[in-house]
Design brief:
Layout lengths: L4 E4 L5 H10 L1 E4 L6 H8 L3 E6 L7 H6 L5 E4 L9 H7 L2 E3 L6 H16 L2 H9 L19 E4 L3 H11 L5 E4 L10 E2 L3 H7 L2 E4 L13 H7 L4 E4 L8 H10 L4 E4 L18 E3 L8 H19 L10
Parallel strand pairs: 1-2, 1-3, 3-4, 4-5, 6-7, 6-9, 7-8, 9-10, 10-11, 11-12
Helix pairs in contact: 1-11, 5-7, 8-9
Length: 313
């Protein structure tokens, strides 16, 4: 398979790069000074794309690669891949579900605790020597709080199970009620936000879920409510969230993702009621290696004419 051209869209994981390089003819697009010329030159040999949550395959790129047969994404989310166009062109698409569920769910709980208990601020308080001048202010309890989850898929369900261990009542919103779930269902995000203390975003990014967190939802969550986002940045109308945090219209937020990553609204940097993470939901050595194995495994399966491991299209 050394002659099969694979186009990698951005730096992702050194282990993944090594595995691809030893099996395929790997092209790293971010190292190319003149991308259009490069794509024209190699358009007949590039048969696969490896993308992730930030760089995938849009219509323009797909059209520039007539030999393209498969897109293998180093992520669960596929909002950077034009799935409909891939279907139309007969291009297979895979992702990396399940292996990152635990890490993202763990981080959601950690981010919630960090936000409510102000762990980052506590750390700065000790490091700056302020503890010598008096005790830290009181924070907010997590155990027993009502947790509302937007999206009860693999990750949403894993978050719910972890929150249950803290004696948190669980409710959720999804496109339809899950008959197998005993959690309380709300038919709208506004109703869910009105009924919970902590609102967790864990749904896929689609046109329907883009800015699913808007001013109405934020106001429904209210001045004692907390927002946690481990989904995608565009789930939230970011300017509305920034103004709500500045004005104290919600108590706080824990954010692992942002609308224009890696750019984060600078207004947030001065606020103590928000915790900011650099999109590290699946960011452990163990999980990223498993994700890489899935990416490579899907490519090997496809080019060996075997069933895909995790097909989407």
């Amino acid at each position: 398979m050394e002659s099969i051209g694979v186009l990698m869209m951005c730096p992702m994981n050194s282990y993944l790069e090594h595995q691809l390089e030893t099996r395929f003819n790997l092209h790293r697009i971010w190292t190319v000074p003149h991308k259009t010329h490069f794509l024209n030159l190699h358009s007949g040999s590039i048969r696969a794309i490896v993308g992730n949550a930030t760089a995938g395959a849009d219509r323009e790129l797909i059209d520039s690669l007539p030999a393209l047969e498969i897109v293998s994404s180093f992520s669960v989310g596929l909002d950077k891949v034009d799935l409909e166009y891939c279907k139309e062109k007969g291009i297979r698409v895979t992702n990396t579900p399940d292996v990152l569920t635990d890490d993202v769910a763990d981080l959601a709980i950690g981010l919630t605790l960090t936000t409510l208990r102000k762990i980052c601020e506590c750390d700065r308080y000790v490091r700056s020597g302020l503890w010598k001048k008096g005790d830290f202010k009181l924070t907010t309890k997590f155990s027993g709080k009502k947790v509302g989850i937007i999206g009860l898929g693999r990750i949403g369900t894993a978050i719910a199970k972890r929150a249950e261990a803290f004696n948190c009542p669980i409710s959720y919103y999804s496109r339809s009620k899950k008959p197998e779930s005993n959690y309380k269902y709300f038919p709208s995000v506004v109703e869910l936000a009105s009924d919970c203390d902590i609102l967790v975003v864990a749904c896929p990014l689609t046109e329907e879920t883009r800015h699913i967190i808007n001013r109405e939802v934020i106001d429904a969550l209210g001045p004692t409510g907390y927002l946690i986002n481990i989904g995608r940045g565009p789930h939230i109308d970011e300017p509305e969230l920034v103004s709500a945090l500045v004005e104290g219209r919600i108590a706080g937020a824990g954010l692992d993702v942002f609308e224009n990553e890696p750019h984060v609204p600078e207004e947030l940097f001065k606020l103590d009621n928000v915790v900011l993470l650099p999109h590290v939901g699946s960011g452990t050595v163990e999980t990223r290696n498993e994700m890489a194995d899935l990416v490579v495994g899907n490519l090997e399966a496809y080019f060996n004419k075997k069933p895909l491991l995790t097909p989407v299209v």
